[in-house]
Amino acid sequence: MRSFLLLAALAIALAACESPAPFTTQASSESPPRVIVRPPVHGSADELAAYLAKLRGMSETAIAAEAVRQRKAASARDANDMQRLRAAIALALSPQGEDAEVAALAEPIAKREGADANARAMASFLLLFSSERRRLRESAVAARMTLREEKRNAETQKQRADALQERAAQLQQKLDALTELEKSLTDRPPPAQ
Description:
Blueprint: H1 2-16, H2 44-56, H3 60-74, H4 81-93, H5 99-111, H6 117-187
Helix pairs in contact: 2-4, 3-4, 4-5, 4-6, 5-6
């Protein structure tokens, strides 16, 4: 039975194999399809993606240095949109980058109708990113101020509670002293008349 199953599996495997087509020496009447090879087009999206990949491998100090370098390049008179976007990206990723500066670099590109679509999309993203980060920073500052105020209030409450507890202890001592005095007065024999 086992050999029968092995033989059946072998027959199925052989049936699935196809024998190679015989070699013909006649020339085919059809010509092979033409393949047109075009060099890859590097658009603005590819350039921005490559720049982001470059920044991704950098340390914080290297990104800060890159932001300074790109800021200089973007402030030149002949700076184009891609240079401004690279500066905005570097500033957005830099710990010392200012959101207002990122927005100032990206906003003209995002609003310009004739700008490259990919550049406008990245500029719009950077505008949203910088405004959201600014909002988060402001809320973090507000939360820190609230926390500081709550700590101050908690400290004040603690000081009041400590003062009240100390006052209660003093009053208890006075009450105990008065109780002892009253006890000593009642324990005395009455004066002789």
